[in-house]
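quick one before i forget lol
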Amino acid sequence: MTAQTLSATTLPDAGAERRPTEDRSPEQRSWWPVWRGILLRSALVPVIVLAPLVALQPSADHRFNTYSNGARYLAHPGDLFFEAVRSVPQYLALGNFRPLGRMVEWTLDALTFAITGLLGLPANVSLRLVSFASAVLLTLATVVLAECVVSRGRPFTGPPSPVAAVLPFAVGGSFVAAGRTSTTVLFGGLYFLTAALVLLVAAAAAGAVGRPRLGTRLGVLAGVTGAVLAGFNEMAWLALPLATLVVLVRARLVLALSWRETVRGAGARFTGLLWAGFLPVAIPVRLIIARECLAGRCYSGSEVAPDGILGALPNRLTSWVPPLMWQRATEGPYGHTLGLALLPALVLLLLLIRRFWRDLPSCEIPDRRQVWALAATGLGVLVLAATMGALNAQMQLLAAAGWWGLGWRDSALAGAGGALLTVALLTGVSVLGRRKAGTYRGGALAGVLLLVLIAAVSSSANRDYRAAAASEKPAFVHDRVAQEIADFDRSAAGDARRCALREQYRNGLRRDRRTGYPAELRRFDQAVNAATFRLAHRPFCAKLPA
């Protein structure tokens, strides 16, 4: 019978079979090597899946913000705060509040530009590296939330659950380039970090459950965090209802506390203080935005359309399902799904299975109540993210047109929720009936192999998306622009190439916007000039105004 290490703080699970530990050495009883393996998988699985996108061409605002914001705020980081505050009225008039979220976004632009300047990498590569790092943080945040919910004692003071060991494979498979609006393609750094923030705030609330008292410092932190969430972005607002849910789930399902103990406990107080810090900021902001949108002046991405939510909700609830996302990623001329990237990705992911199999006996097998708690948490994350997506008028139109599996701003959080739900399902199948160690390990291995295959196909689908995007003329132009900025050629030939790229960009505009000095071309000039003046003290094209 395989041995298992138990935490001294772990409460007994009635009816569960425990395995002897006296024949294990102190080194074997230590669970920290197991956590190191989980951290390693949380870092490597997302990178393996996302690796085919490392040279994906910039699109939408990324074509300009990386240069203009990056060059500006790298040179003057103090402007981040003042510009975010100064622009609040302007963005409120457009139905958008997010001062702290913009500060994070601009910081990521500056970091991207700094990598380009330091390593000489094209901005599109630097942009993806920052996005990959954010995806790793999201994977870690998902693991932290799961462990805080299912732990019977104080989280991270005992052996991890196998849920934490499996989750990196499930989360990694959700990082699919499911269309141009997917967070894997557009604003990945910002929305991966936002989703990680939501999950970590909920994890902190779950971790407070069962504490004898909340404490002044933690209470103040909760109130400040609530105010921060109100000024971050709309997706961050989901941390409040999610924190409320996980407090109830852990208190009632995992720790079996009474309703009286639940509502008077430290977890409920932490959540109450979150709301207390959040509502005084969020309520007046939403009233102002509702007035602007009612007058038809707000940005369409910020408009809320409650009437169409029921029609779009099924679409958004399934938007995280990998096969549906593969369909969106492989729609281009190079889409094969089972393509060139499948085999190397599969080999690399299978190499991680060996460490997983070695660490699995040191994990504490969950019981049914813990599995139900994990499933409730995953479903809660998924429903909240999907509801926000379904409230958007644009998503409602796309859902009505049959665009299943299409990525949007909710994709990062929906993918994490779907991963939690998937792992809960796989774990639940393994713990049905008697929880014998050998049977459970075999079921866990089968589940992980399935998740590895899904992640490998997601990597292949990402390769197909990049190949299709590279075949488009506008993407090619911006790819070459990034190369020319990174490897700035001061010769007359280099200047001629850059001026030719500018002309190609003009020719790619709509015919009615090619004459004169259109706004799109002016924005292009401002962005690339900011970059080249910062890196080489020269204009992008000598014919342009400096």
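fyi The chain has a mean pLDDT of 86.
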